[in-house]
Amino acid sequence: MTIDSTALTHAPATLQRARVLRIPRSPKVIAGLVILGVFSVTPYSPNATDTQNWVRHVLVPGTGGDSGFPASYYPLPLGPSAAHWLGTTVFAQDAWSQLLASTQATMFVGLLAAAIATVLSIIFGVTAGYIGGATDEGLSLVANVSLAIPGLPLLIVLADYVPSAGSSLALVAAIIAVTTWAYTARTLRAQTLSLRNRDFVEASRVSGEGSLRIIGVEILPNLIPIVAASFLFTSLTAIYAYVAISFLGLAGSPTGSPPGLWNWGEMLREGFANNAVRGGWWWWWAPPRICVALLGTGLALVNFGIDEFINPRLRTSGLTAKAARKAGAHVSATLGLTPVMRRTATAANTTPSTPDAVLEIRGLSVDYGYGDQAVHAVRDCDLVLRRGRVLGLAGESGSGKTTLALAAIRLLRAPAVITEGQVLFHSKPFTGDNPKETIDMLAAGPHRLREIRWSEIAVVLQSSLNALNPVTTIGAQFDDMLRAHRPHMSRDQRYTRGVELLDMVGMNGDRLRSYPHELSGGMRQRAMIAMALALEPQVMVLDEPTTALDVVTQREILEELMGLRDRLGFAALFITHDLSLLVEFADDIAVMYAGRLMERAPANSLFRAPRLPYTHGLLHCFPPMHGKRVPMAGIPGSPPDLRDLPSGCAFHPRCKWALDQCKHDVPVLRSIPGPNREVACWLHRNGATPPLELSLAEPGDVMRERLSQVDIQ
Q1: CA geometry: angle 435, 440, 445, nearest 5 deg
Q2: How far apart are CA 33 and CA 41, in angstroms?
Q3: CA–CA separation, 116 vs 231, rounded Å?
Q4: Is it the case that residue 71 has pLDDT exceeding 90?
Q5: Residues 518-528: pLDDT tens digits?
Q6: Average pLDDT, rounded, for the chain
Q7: Closest CA to 369 of 331, 405, 424
Q8: Which segments of 259-311 does DSSP mark as H helices, in order?
Q9: What is the DSSP track for 102-142?
Q10: Which residues are CB-contacts of 123 (< 8 A; sequence separation ≥ 6)?
Q11: What is the pTM of this model?
């Protein structure tokens, strides 16, 4: 298969844009940096005094004048002013300068302690989790012992009995780090135990990478959000501890011996010792307390920015949210609820409903991102799913199949947004308990969608191992689902229903006690199908449910599904890239390419007589089972980049029958001669003569011709 060079033309520019440091663009990070930057400017020396101008001199009663005693004055601090933003202390010192100077020692202790604790937690936690065995037991024992050491009492004892301990910032930071690293180490160990058996780590082992490289390159980057959060937590813990021992007078006074450094705890101690609270001099004691909270807020905001920069999903979401505001789009970011442009949610349906339709998709368009950054994943798609029938949706990976299906039930996550179209669900419960109604899925709220999902529209996802909770038994997951949607059922009834459902898909009811990892791939997929059928839904969305299974198990599950469809009467939207599979089970097939529907026809007609060059290529990617051997041509090139689609028909660079019009004009889906046939191709428009491969007779016409020949004979 050759590579389409046109798709790679703009790759360097795209990569260059992706590498731009985007952290400062985040409002949260900017706010955090501003907060932290405020603490970096000191207008005066914290030890500078001006007894003549920086305090008020109040005459001591009984002195001066006719009292017979020399006049004596005592100082009172000045309130905030333009010269002294936070006023002064009774020692004629600028409170704002002391506050900012105190930040240096406080932050140094916090950051140094966090750095030491983070290094220790990574060394012990990640190493223990990855290596396991005796190493894990030994390192975990060290962590558990460290958890039993009380950090603050140990720090107070050392500061009290060792004269230089409290004034040594490095020693204070080391003590705090040694008594706080174990919490993070245990968290990192648990996450590493989960990551070390992932496929990407196994692939690294197969490629010959050493343990140190796997830990540093494969596992550690996935733990950076946890490491960053623990760094923040340890920093704040160290700051609180340092402020506490300073308030107790154990961190060394700036004027004592050995001299200590200015810090917020020392400011609080001096303020309380000189009756700042009783005197109403709030500018002396309140700002240090506020600064502790502000510093914590600033570190937290910067940590959010680190998360967004490290995690590509968070980074993408933040950028597209900014682009949404720039584009003037008002969308919802509720988890589990795909945002819809407001103009789409209130659009009126002007197209009459198709008879016997259960789900109608009209002109649906889905973007990933907003404005100029948007990637148009689905464009103006129409689909109708009829009751009791299977509609197949085929196409190469990246064509938009799953995006279209999940957008219809609004399960796509941000930055996906539905920009145009309408999705109508015609509810007609099999039981007849509820009245018939038509529900606009794009206008429905979270509560309404929660009622519809699974009870009336169920989904079987591609990876059953990821869809099933790995730490919960199959029976518990059945029980949770039934309890949420059928609250009137008792526990025994829910268990009985679970046994019935497993039996329905050919599994033993005892498997309700099994965990997902105890089942084979085929059994997990059957369990997912049974769970999807538990509430007798009207629509089943099957997103490549058998892709990872062997052909024998695949056929067994599909035959089971079709039998259940005939028995229960639900409609199914079957998504796959395997056209030969769809032909056997689907009633109708729709083919997607580059986010657009390109052909739609009955399954047998599409298989025997395709009208689209892309469909013809998909069908000829499989060797024939009968007849002479022929070379497999496949489809030349690669699927286009949705960010840089070619002009005209998106398939024309790969099409050997492309016309000049195909390079300039985008074809839309239109009816052509044949039973319920539609195609988006210029080869079937404006009097063009399609090639012989795309003009084969309809299967029905061939059958009628053969019958007529038999009658003549």
Answers
A1: 95
A2: 14
A3: 10
A4: no
A5: 888 788 888 88
A6: 80
A7: 331
A8: 264-273, 276-279, 282-310
A9: HHHHHHHHHHHHHHHHHHHHIIIIIHHHHH-HHHHHHHHHH
A10: none
A11: 0.71
